[in-house]
Amino acid sequence: MEQTVALIYDFDGTLAPGNMQEYDFIPAVGKSNKEFWNDANVLAETQDADPVLAYMARMIQEAQSKGLSLRREAFQISGRNIRYYKGVEEWFSRMNEYAAERGIRLLHYVNSSGLKEIIEGTSIAKEFKHIYACSFLYNVDGIAYWPAVAVNYTNKTQFIFKINKGVESVYDTRMVNQYMEENRRPVPFKRMIYVGDGMTDIPCMKLVKNYGGHSIAVYNPDDKGKRKEMNTLIRDNRVNFVCAADYSEGSEMDTVVKSIVDKIAADLRLEQLEAERV
């Protein structure tokens, strides 16, 4: 019987360089990246607000002031312009095949502070079992008018528990808080692999690692000085590995994830042998 392993990714800086709003949305409103994020951060600071809610508010304000569409479809079209790190588009099928050969069903998830609607428009959206990310409420005319979900660095952890218990709904807080025996949970923590790139991912990476799973911190391969900085996450016992965000076959990332899959498969075989002895 196939066992499930969850491979959970942040998006911005993890699967694609930079922030997703920088590919299409920010240029369309006539701002530089620095201007837009500075405006959002100043708004958050002066109002003592959550930075994620502040950036979502600025997106609505800027789009309205420039007469840009705030329909879900417009955000999805924006997602078509995102460029990925090397090897990302081929990564999913290759890893799925590798895991399947070892009796493992590999499921991919996004856990991001970026915008779900933009991710939905990317060429890799179909690869994910579920996308947990920020999103807007839409009125009867299909226009975004208010945040529906805001994902910051601490509430990102809730989605780890949802994956653990097989709950995809953001709204459903009842099932995720119900007691469920460990052996009945669809994806035990020890069969999770979390991939992230920055400070907003640290609580999730630490959580997965502490519960017996594996966490990988990635960095832009073009930023050679970043690896030394990221290595502090290993020293501080927050992640298991640090890799360049290169998802091509034979890369360090490819080797590490395949090795984790091999370990999980071996652990599952040992568990089966132990159960047969009872």
Short structural summary:
The protein is of the alpha/beta class.
3D structure, described in words:
This protein has eleven helices and seven strands. It is an alpha/beta fold. The model has no long low-confidence stretch (mean pLDDT 93). α6 (116-120) links the parallel β2 (104-115) and β3 (130-138). α2 crosses α3 and α5 (88-100) runs parallel beside α11 (252-277). It is globular. It has a seven-stranded mixed sheet with strand order 4-3-2-1-5-6-7, sandwiched between helices. The two termini are 19 Å apart.
Strand and helix map with partners:
Blueprint: E1 3-9, H1 25-28, H2 33-47, H3 51-66, H4 72-79, H5 88-100, E2 104-115, H6 116-120, E3 130-138, E4 144-149, H7 157-165, H8 174-177, E5 192-196, H9 202-210, E6 214-219, H10 226-235, E7 241-244, H11 252-277
Parallel strand pairs: 1-2, 1-5, 2-3, 5-6, 6-7
Antiparallel strand pairs: 3-4
Helix pairs in contact: 2-3, 5-11
Name the average pLDDT.
Answer: 93
> What's the overall geometry?
globular
How many helices in DSSP terms? 11
Q: How would you classify the quaternary structure?
A: single chain
Strand numbers in spatial order across the main sheet? 4-3-2-1-5-6-7
Strand percentage lies at 15-25%
Order of helices and strands: EHHHHHEHEEHHEHEHEH
Distance between the termini: 19 Å
E-strand count: 7
Radius of gyration: 19 Å
Q: Which spans of ≥5 residues are poorly predicted at pLDDT below 50?
A: none
Which structural class do you get from the secondary structure elements? alpha/beta
Approximate helicity band:
40-55%
How would a crystallographer describe the biggest sheet?
Answer: 7 strands, mixed
